[in-house]
Amino acid sequence: MGGFDNQLLVTVGANIISAALILAGGLFVLFQNPRRDINWLFFFLTASTLAYTVLFIIASLQTDYAAAYFWWFLNIFDVFIAMAVVHFIFRVINRERQWRWFIIATYTTGLGIFAVAWLNPAWFLPSVVPKLYFAYYLTAGGWYIVMLVYFLGTPLVAAGNLIASYYTSVGIERKRLEYFILMLAIGYAIGCLNFLLVFDVPFDPVFGALMGLYLIPIAYGIFSTNLLDIRLVVRRAFYYAISIAAIAGFLMALILLNGFLVRTVPGIQFWTVPVIVAIAAFIIGRAVWKQAREAEKLKYEFITIATHKLRTPLTRIRWAIPELLAASGGNETLHKGIRRIDDANNRLIELTNVLMEASHPGGTYDYQEIPVDLKHLAWEAIKRFATQISEKKLAISVNPGEAPKALGDARRLTLVVEVLVENAVMYTPAGGTVKIGVAPNRRGVRFSVADTGIGVKREDQEHIFSSFFRTTSARTVDTEGVGLGLSLAKRILDRQGGRIGVESAGEGKGSTFWFILPAAEE
Amino acid sequence: MDTPQSTPAPRTRIVYIEDEPFFGGTMSRLLSEAGYTTMVAADGEEGLAMVAKEKPDLVLLDLVLPKVDGKEVLKRIKSDPATKNIPVFVLSNLSADADQRETVALGAAGFFVKAMTLPSAIVEAIKRELG
Q1: CB A517 within 8 A of CB A440
Q2: Is B115 within 8 Å of A356 when comparing Cβ atoms?
Q3: Domain extent at residue B72
Q4: Per-residue pLDDT tens over the stretch A117-129
């Protein structure tokens, strides 16, 4: 690496680490759930910033004028970052549809700027010249400024919307947006540091390499899953990023050290140090892996113990109820009171089930695949909530006729059906109607619960299956809920190859929650 | 089941191994109303001794127990030729599938999560099991 300035090598090294961090973050998020388009959008965002970083690294190492010009010219790839940021933000705040025109305009303008620059490279980059420790660095042509205005301006519109959404959101959603804002602020503020030198402000672009840090807050935000998981997943994402960065740094140090040792210590082969390091890495890796597994197990065990402890007194109450009811004789007040205690207690028991189920997000337990009669589960659920149904005078029905059985885990599906029926009962005003349907569908069996309740706003429909998410109207109707039921239902269905969804014409217009499972072979 | 079905039946006997007196009390009251005799053991060790001595018609078994753990009790009942044919119902508040599978694999005839089952339903299941 002879002729390079040390400062340049530091900047390049820092950018390599940043690139590794961005790559790791992007892939990590993508593979968390490659079926969600938001994860692809995030990947687009990381890919564009990665391209920028990699091109920056290559360009700064060029000592030949023509090569340097070519690579620095590729700075025009910045336009893709703006496109990704704009699209991503509108997707995050669920305003994609309303701002469709703006997203399309951003894409077309960006591509236009890109095309013009390729047709007239000198408009964009008149020349490259030596700056600070760089053999060559960018100078700004008129078109470079156009690109910069676009690069800074379009995301500003999206960011304005993001901040507005932030102020109107609540709870976990607000927290999520907080992380997005933080990510954009970090990414943009740091990323822009590289521009200063373009305009001859003698600011060392080494700090621009810190751009990869934008991934840390984002990892928090994107996982709108369970809060327990969020913490776990973020920690993992953070560890991944840090370890990959550390590995990159370590490999560089190793190469230098190896070269030095081979030259100075007689008898050392070029492979000696790498072999020793590989063995050490294997041992450390194994220990870390075991530690991580242990931690996961402990978390599960802790929740199991806590649930068990909670269940013992709850069971005492439940077991005492039938005798109390029998003893209450004809005393109507007493009878009603005991029924209420029973309902409240059953709700708590239900919560322990949810906790148990939520504590092991998959992998730990097998799901059974047996034919399940969803109609039977529906009737069981109706029986469970009979008190509330009669108190609210709800007209509840299950469609008549034969329905195919679904293939799944009976115990978990009981929970799913209960969640859907309970929600319908809870969020439908007195005198309303709840219609449960089980019908064949081209993907299998479709179970649906249609009510005349509070409904779900269009923008909430996507988030309603996220943990701890509760719509504003749900909060007003029922203050006790925690916002776990639907997310759990979704998780259970995901695990069984099922799908869950909601249809609602809007707030106050009722809603239909449905899920589809494969049908059991008859 | 190869339980003796002798006609002037000495009352059918059940051993309930449970450290929570409330559960033991409730179940034995309900079972005696249904015509069964119930003996309650407060820990695994006592339970094993009681099962060996009394040779009951059915065993109800909690999993979280002092001295000898419920799964171990089940293992020993099922490995002793003198007791291995006695049906065992596990009554637990652990509801993880792993526990359920494990106890069924060990030879349990039924698994009930206490918080999710009323005692009357357990009595019904016992009636069905004992015919």
Answers
A1: no
A2: no
A3: 13-130
A4: 999 999 999 999 9
- Domain count across chain B: 1
Kindly report the length of chain A: 522
Domain A6-231 has CATH 1.20.1070.10: yes
Residue A183 burial (CB count, 10 A): 23
pLDDT of residue A207: 78
Rounded Cα–Cα distance for residues A40 and A42 (Å): 5
pLDDT in tens, chain B (131 residues): 444 444 445 678 999 999 888 999 999 999 998 899 999 999 999 999 999 998 999 999 998 888 888 899 999 999 999 888 999 999 988 766 677 788 888 888 989 888 888 899 999 999 998 87
Query: What span, in angstroms and rounded, lies between the C-alpha atoms of A203 and A196?
Result: 6
Architecture field, domain A370-517? 2-Layer Sandwich (3.30)
Distance of CA B50 to the CA centre of its chain: 12
- Residues A371 and A518: beta-carbon distance below 8 Å: no
Q: Which residue of A has its CA nearest to B93?
A: A308
Contacts of B115 in chain A (CB under 8 A): 311, 314-315, 318, 349, 352
Which pLDDT tens digit goes with each residue over A137-154? 999 999 999 999 999 999
Strand ranges (E), A148-219: none
- By C-alpha distance, the chain B residue nearest A410 is B97
- Using CB atoms, pick whichever of B22, B94, B98 lies closest to residue A365: B98
pTM assigned to the model: 0.47
Whether B4 maps to a domain, the answer reads no
Contacts of A318 in chain B (CB under 8 A): 115, 118
Of the CA atoms within 13 Å of residue A361, those in its CB half-sphere come to: 14
Alpha helices in A137-170 (DSSP H): 142-168
Q: Amino acid letter at A215?
A: L
Which of A300, A307, A308, A349 to probe by mutation at the B interface, max B CB count within 10 Å? Answer: A308
Q: Which of B93, B96, B97 sits opposite A311 (nearest CB)?
A: B93
For A451-466, the pLDDT digits (tens) are: 999 998 887 887 788 7
The CATH number given to whatever domain includes residue B55 is 3.40.50.2300
CB pairs under 8 A between A and B: 43
Backbone phi, psi, residue B79, to 5°:
-95, -10
CA-only gyration radius of chain B, Å: 13
Distance CA A262, CA A253 (A): 14
A68, pLDDT greater than 70: yes
B105 to chain A, any CB pair closer than 8 A? The answer is no
Could A319 and B98 be called an inter-chain contact, meaning their C-beta atoms sit closer than 8 Å?
no
Residue owning tokens 């028991």: A349
- For the beta carbon of residue A477, count every other beta carbon within 10 angstroms: 15
Residue B44, CA distances (Å) to A183, A284, B63, B75 in order: 57, 43, 9, 12
Chain-chain contact of A315 with B23 (C-beta, under 8 angstroms): yes
State residue A82's pLDDT score.
93
Shortest CA gap A308–chain B (Å)? 6
Which residues of chain B make contact with A362, given a CB cutoff of 8 A?
none
Q: Which residue of B has its CA nearest to A409?
A: B97
ipTM of the complex: 0.83
Instruction: Collect all residues with Cβ–Cβ distance below 8 Å to B36 and sequence separation of at least 6.
Output: B11, B12, B13, B14, B126
Average pLDDT score over residue span A311-336 = 89
Q: Which two tokens stand for residue A454?
A: 């509070």
CATH class of domain segment(s) A292-359: mainly alpha
Residue A445 is predicted with a pLDDT of: 92
Please report how the helices B21-33 and B119-130 are oriented relative to each other, as an axis angle in degrees rounded to 10: 50
